[in-house]
Amino acid sequence: MYKLVRNRLEKWPVLAAALFMIIQVFCNLNLPTLTSDMINKGVSTGNTTYIWHTGAKMLGIALIGILASAGNVFFASTQAQKLGTKLRNALFEKVLNFGNHEVDKFGASSLTTRTTNDVLQIQNVTVMILRMMLQAPAMLIGGIIMAYLSEKKLTIVFLVSLPLLAIAIGIVMSFAGPLFSSLQKKIDRINLVFREGLTGVRVVRAFRQDNFEQNRFEDANKSYTDTAIKAFSLVSLMFPIMTLILNGTNIGIIWIGANLVSDRLMEIGNLVSFMTYAAMILFSFMMLSMVFVFIPRAQAAAVRIQEVLDTEYSIKEDSNPTSLNNSELSLEFKNVAFRYAHAERRALESINFNLHSGETLAIIGGTGAGKSTLVNLIPRLYDVESGQINLNGTDISTLSQSKLHEQIAFVQQKAFLFKGTIRSNLQVGKPNATEDEMWHALELAQAAEFIKDLDNGLDSIVEHNGANFSGGQRQRLAIARAIIKPADVYIFDDSFSALDFKTDAKLRKALSNDKKISQSIVIIVAQRIATVTTANQIIVLDEGQNVGKGTHAELKKTNSTYQEIIKSQLKGEDI
Ligand SMILES: Nc1ncnc2c1ncn2[C@@H]1O[C@H](COP(=O)(O)OP(=O)(O)O)[C@@H](O)[C@H]1O
Ligand SMILES: [Mg+2]
C-alpha cells in the first residue's frame, strides 16, 4: 500500500495534518493536569479566582484543540479524496489502454470493483492513518508519561489492564481479520452477477431464467451480508469489552487512590486527572488496534489495485516506432497464425493475402470459423502468434499504435454506440466532421432515411449502447461512424448481417461508388454468400484454416466448402 500511496500524497498538506494532530494531542494531554490543579489548588482551598483563571485557560486550550482537530480533519480528508481521484484516474487510464487479452484476464466486473470499492478502502484508511495512526501512539505514550508524572504509584493498574485489553483485541481481530479480507472477493462476485444479469437482461427474460438469476444474485448478496455481519459484530464486541476493562481500571484506580488520598499521600485532583489519563490510554490503545484491522483490508485492496497498474500490456508499443510509408497502400498477411491465451487449438492457421488500394476482401465462414479473430488482428486488438501483418510494407507491430489506429476504420461485430446523440457518435469517427459529411456518411450507410424521420435529426438522443434503436439501425449507425472516418482500411465485421438483402446490396453498392472508400482497402466479414459475391478476393475460413481463396466465380466452381455454403443458403439457386 505504501508504494501505491507514496507518490500520490502531497508533502505539505500531509505535514500540516500531522502538525495539527500534534497540537491536538498536546492540548488533550494538558487538560486533565489543569483539572487536577483546579481541584487541588482551587476547589480544596476555596480560591475562586484561581478556579476562574484555570477555567479560562482550560477553555482556551480546549478551543485550540478543537481548531487543531478541525485542521487535521480538513487536510487528512482532502488528501484522501485527492488520492482516491488520482488512483481512479490512473486505473482508468491503464484500463483504457488494455488489450482484449488483459480485460479477459481480470473480467470487467472485477475491474469495476477495483476502481470503485478498492479505491474507497484505500481512501478510508488514508484518512484513518492521517487522523489516528499518529494520534493514537502519541496519546498512548503521552498519556502514560503524564499519568506517571501525576501519580507513579497508580500506574501499577496499567500492568493489569493493558495486557488484558491486548489479549481481548488479539482474540477478536484474529477472527475478524480474515473475514474482512474475504469481503472484497464477495463484492467482486456481487458485481459480476449483477453485471451479467443487467447486460443479459433480455436473454434472461426470454429464457425465463429470472428466478435462476434472482437466486444467484441473492446467494452472492447473502454470502456478502453474512460475512459482513460476522465481521462487524466481532468488531462491535470491542466496545463492551473496552468499557468493561475501563470501568475495571477505574475501580482499581479509586481503590488504590482512595487509600493514598486518605493517607494524605496523594491529592484528590490527581485522582481525577489520573482517571482521565487512564481512559485516554486505553482508548488510544484500542484505536491503534483498530487501525491494524483496517490496514490489512486496505492492503488487500491495494494489492488488487497495484495488480491492475502493474499489468504489462500484452500489446507492446514499439519504443522506437517506424514511420508509416504513405506512398503505396497495401495490407498483407504473411503466414499469420493466432492462438487465444490458454486455448489448446490455434484460432487461425497460416493466413496469407495481399491487398492493394481499391481492393475488397471478403471473409466468409460459419460461426466460430475465426473471422472476427482475423480482423481483430489488424488494429492489434490481439497480436499474432507467428507470421507477420504488414501495412504499406511495414510490420504493424513496429508502428505506433495511434498511427496504426488512425489508418483503420472498424465496425465491430457487436455494434456499440455511445450514450449521446447521433452527432456525438459520428464525431467519434471524425471529430471535426461537417453536417454535410455526416449526412453523406449516413446516406452511404443507408441510415439517412430513418434519421430524417426522427424529430431532432442529427441531435436525436442515443441511449447507452444504442438501446433506443433496432439492431439493424444500430449497425447502420456504427457503419456510418466508421465510414465518416478518413482511413486507409475499412473493416466491417459481420456488419451487414442484421440488414435485409436489399439494404445490404444498396449499402455495398454505395460504398464501392464512394470516392474515398473506393480508393481504400475494404474488408467485409460475412456469413451470407450474397454479401461477398462482388469482392475482389474471397477467403473461405473453416475452423481457423484458410480452405479457399479466389473470386466468387472461381470458388463457386472449385471449392467444396464454398459450394456447400451456397447450397445451404440458396438451395442451389443460381446467383
Ligand atoms: N476471447 C476469446 N478467448 C478464447 N477463445 C476465443 C475468444 N474469442 C473467440 N474465441 C474462439 O476462437 C474461435 C473463432 O472465433 P471468432 O473469430 O469469433 O469466430 P467467427 O467470428 O468466425 O464467428 C472460436 O472457436 C471461439 O470460441
Ligand atoms: Mg465473428
UniProtKB/TrEMBL annotation:
Transmembrane annotation, as ranges? 12-31, 51-76, 129-150, 156-180, 231-256, 276-295
Cellular component (GO) terms are:
plasma membrane
A GO term, aspect molecular function: ATP binding
Q: What is this protein called?
A: Multidrug ABC transporter permease ATP-binding protein
What broad taxonomic lineage does this protein's source fall under? Bacteria, Bacillati, Bacillota, Bacilli, Lactobacillales
Q: Superkingdom of this entry's organism?
A: Bacteria
Question: What sequence ranges are listed for the domain ABC transmembrane type-1?
Answer: 15-297
Is the keyword Membrane assigned to this protein? yes
Keywords from the named record:
ATP-binding, Cell membrane, Membrane, Nucleotide-binding, Transmembrane, Transmembrane helix, Transport
Q: Where in the cell is it found?
A: Cell membrane
Q: What region holds the ABC transporter domain?
A: 331-568
Lipid bilayer topology? Multi-pass membrane protein
